[in-house]
């Protein structure tokens, strides 16, 4: 049985347990990368320390991380780390794009762009720790470049059917 399962895993790239992709790539972008990136981008033009918790609202229930119990610069640090960690999710086997095409894991550029995202996330984390607005501008630039490099190759197509190919 174990042999059959490992043969299946090897043959079809089936993934088990924690390594299973549950969202398609668009859902992963909308659910994880996009909201986290917006928290990081906020800090290139605004001061996270100036974000107030909303009066009368329980901060532990806040829907905006910046206004939450773990808000301000801490929210920026954590969003940056979430982005860095999300690079691994981009490499999870078995994920498909919204058009059903497999995520192009076999293309070396895919891994390269994922690494750019991982590095840009860590750069943003260090910038958030330093609370230096100039470093945040720099890190946000690196971050948006890492998103754009991959999008240029696999997302920006005439039709959605051509994405990821
Ligand atoms: C390694 C490649 C890669 C990286 C890095 C990447 N993306 Fe994406 N992204 C894609 C692809 C491909 C799609 C289209 C997916 C689909 O159609 O299923 C996409 C789709 C999206 C969408 C959904 C757009 C829509 O039409 O609904 C958003 C939002 C998004 N990305 C945001 C980001 C942000 C923000 C970053 C950087 C922090 C980022 N992405 C980094 C490849 C990438």
Please characterize this protein's 3D structure.
The protein has 165 residues and is mostly helical. It has a single domain, classed as Four Helix Bundle (Hemerythrin (Met), subunit A) (Up-down Bundle). 58% of the residues lie in helices and 0% in strands. It has five helices and no strands. Helix 2 runs antiparallel to helix 5 and helix 3 (73-90) runs antiparallel to helix 4. The longest helix is centred in the last third of the chain and has 23 residues, at 108-130. The protein is globular and about 45 Å long. The structure holds heme C. Residues 24-26, 29-30, 33-34, 37, 83, 90, 97-98, 110, 113-114, 117, 143, 146-147, 150-151, 154-155, 163-164 line the site of heme C.
CATH topology: Four Helix Bundle (Hemerythrin (Met), subunit A)
Which segments are poorly predicted (pLDDT under 50) over 5 or more consecutive residues? none
Second-tier CATH architecture = Up-down Bundle
The run of helices and strands is: HHHHH
| Mean residue pLDDT | 92
Main sheet attributes: strand count, strand direction, barrel closure: none
Number of helices: 5
- Terminal CA distance: 35 Å
Q: Please tell me how large the radius of gyration is.
A: 18 Å
Present as ligands are: heme C
Overall 3D form: globular
Number of domain units: 1
In percent, how much strand structure appears in the residues?
Answer: under 5%
Concise summary:
58% of the residues lie in helices and 0% in strands.
Summarize the SSE layout with pairings:
Blueprint: H1 2-12, H2 25-45, H3 73-90, H4 108-130, H5 133-154
Helix pairs in contact: 2-3, 2-5, 3-4, 4-5
The structure holds heme C.
């Amino acid at each position: 049985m174990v042999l059959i399962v490992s043969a299946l895993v090897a043959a079809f790239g089936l993934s088990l347990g924690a390594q299973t992709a549950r969202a398609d790539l668009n859902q992963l972008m909308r659910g994880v990368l996009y909201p986290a990136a917006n928290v990081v981008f906020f800090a290139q033009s605004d001061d996270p320390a100036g974000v107030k918790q909303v009066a009368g609202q329980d901060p532990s229930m806040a829907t905006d991380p910046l206004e939450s119990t773990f808000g301000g610069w801490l929210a920026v640090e954590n969003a940056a780390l979430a982005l860095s960690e999300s690079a691994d999710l981009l490499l999870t086997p078995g994920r498909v794009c919204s058009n059903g095409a497999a995520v192009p894991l076999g293309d070396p550029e895919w891994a390269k762009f994922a690494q750019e995202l991982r590095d840009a996330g860590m750069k943003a984390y260090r910038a958030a720790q330093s609370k230096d607005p100039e470093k945040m501008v720099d890190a946000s630039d690196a971050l948006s470049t890492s998103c754009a490099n991959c999008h240029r190759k696999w997302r920006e197509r005439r039709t959605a059917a051509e994405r990821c190919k």
